[in-house]
Amino acid sequence: MLHGWHRTLRMRSRVNRGTPQQPGLVFALLPGGACCGVVYRLRAETVEAELERLWTREMPTGVYDPRLLNCRTAQGPVQALAFTLSRSSPACLPRLPDDDIEHILRHASGRYGSTLQYLAETASALQARGVHDREIERLMALARRRGLL
Questions:
Q1: Is residue 75 classed as helix, strand or coil in its secondary structure?
Q2: Can you tell me the distance from the alpha carbon of 58 to that of 67, in angstroms, rounded to the nearest whole number?
């Protein structure tokens, strides 16, 4: 459990899940609220190489603000590296109306697939770990109602 941050599908993606002509969306952590997820523990003998790989993947454009955040786990509190998004970032979009989200889910696709695939894969991965996220469940229901799934 991460308090003080929430997961939201409001980060513009012009490469991985969309294009400059049809931007997609990816999840980001924004201030406020709380969310559940997964914390990975890195082995001491590989931590340097793993952090380098993670940094290369998450920070190529510097859009994120990396932070050590306090998480509550079943084994007790831990600090975890998280890549958060500033509300003032040009990549951070305002809350979009459902019709705009539907258009993006229907049309946006990039290097790693579509925004719709990304949403569905995230929902499935969280569900497999027993994590319930109301906003993801709402977006999945929207996609089903609009005939996207």
A1: coil
A2: 13
Q: Which residue has the tokens 């989200």?
A: 101
The two tokens of residue 45 are 């003998």
**Cα separations (Å) of 77 from 2, 73, 74?**
10, 6, 8
- Taking every pair of C-alpha atoms in the chain, what is the biggest distance, in angstroms? 48
Pair of tokens at residue 139: 């977006």
Tens digit of each residue's pLDDT (9 = 90 or more) over 50-84: 999 999 989 988 899 999 999 999 999 999 999 99
Identify the pLDDT of residue 113: 98
What's the fold here for domain 2-145?
Hypothetical upf0131 protein ytfp (3.10.490)
Of 132, 107, 127, nearest in space to 117 by CA: 107
Ramachandran category for residue 147: left, alpha or beta (phi over 0 → left; psi -120 to 50 → alpha)? left
Amino acid identity of 143? A
Q: Around Cβ 11, how many Cβ atoms within 10 Å?
A: 21
